[in-house]
Amino acid sequence: MRTLALLSLTAVLAVAPGAWAQEEPPPPEPRPERLYINSGVLLGSTRMVGIGGAYTGIAEGTAGFPSNLAALAHRSPQLDRDWDVGITFSLLDLPLRSRRGQDLDNDGLPDEAPDSSQLLFGLLLQYKEFGLGTFIRSRSVSYCATDACAEGDYIQVSVSQSALAGAVAFGQDEFIVSLGIYTASAKLGYKGDDWDYGGTGISLDLLFRPQGRPYRVGIAVRPQVVGGWDRKEDQQPVLADRPIYSGVVSPALLSLGVSYRFGEGAERYNRLSPAARRQLIASGAPNVPLEESPDAPAGTFLVSGQVDLISSVENAVALRSAAAFTEPEGVGRTVLFQPHLGAEHDTWPGRLRTRLGVFIEPSSFEGQVPRPHVTGGFELFLFRYWEDWAVSASFDVARRYANVGLSVGFWR
After folding, report:
1. CA dist., res. 172 & res. 251, Å (int)
2. Is the dihedral angle over the CA atoms 236, 240, 241, 243 positive or is it negative?
3. % of residues, the chain, pLDDT over 90
4. What is the phi-psi region of residue 101: left when phi exceeds 0, alpha when psi lies from -120 to 50, beta otherwise?
5. Which of 256, 353, 269, 288 lies closest to 74 in space, CA to CA?
6. Domains of the chain and any CATH numbers
7. pLDDT per residue over 172-206, tens digit each?
8. Which end of the chain is more exposed for a tag (fewer CB within 10 A), N or C?
9. Distant-in-sequence, close-in-space partners of 134: CB < 8 Å, separation ≥ 6
């Protein structure tokens, strides 16, 4: 009898570890889908917004190189030194009262995020025919972590697209090539913990600006970037009791732009800066154009057009899915087409410029129709003190969206 009891106890002890092992849940794994990062609403300088975002074929100044990185080596026609520095900063921050009814995602629904902001920062350095710079475009959104949506109990989602690039101008600054590293990243935050994603690709941008011709042609190529979850030590793929997603994806982008000037002196649209002309003469280059005043008119009317082709992506879900209580909605499954058209007029030469533009914003959500935008604005010369100062404004209105911008900068 004692022997039978010992055998039974041994059997129980042998089976128990197996039973305990079966009771332990398997380690959680991220969901296979990827969060979709796109450029979103139009964000940039008041000039770029005012002409409907048709800036790839203009590519001027610091405000231009987020649209076309070739602007890094595109020298201002007034530049009379070997170097130049430029900074741009744009902020779109909507107060809660103004955000109600707005639809930044173009998904057909008003945004319910307690907090939302976007910013664009760019830095440009030029030396002779070379340029170097970086830009970052960031979007931050807060989502309710629970149905009760208690104040402060939010999931913070931050996504960004950035580039570090160099550019060089060939010939008489007629052909500019830029090559850069393009990055897409995201950060999910909840109660002091962060879940990070990121990936990189190669960007290639071009600008053709022939001397003595009133037009330019620009091309910008952004790669598709897929970024995985950068798992920290002992970090679980669970955020606010929900599984996180395996990565992020930013679609590839091809932009083709053309700009054309009309009016007196339009052939000076692509004239050399005094610095570029001096350097060409010093290098012994042939057929350098004759010197002319940098303030000579270069046309009074500018028209710019642009077409963006945005690639489809696989297994992507909307950004708000990071805090969704239901099954996430797939996005970005088809190629998107986004045309831009804008115009700028020297209404009062040397004092006032007016702008008007349109563009069609496609939706990455299935079943949503593209929405048209009407844009416009002005730039007004203020006074001359060290530099020529100006104030400018822009607007962008569409279905369930409105944006007004104000800027102080230099008159060019």
Report:
1. 35
2. negative
3. 50
4. left
5. 269
6. 30-347+354-377 (2.40.160)
7. 999 999 999 999 999 998 888 899 999 999 999 99
8. N
9. 122, 123, 162, 163, 164, 165
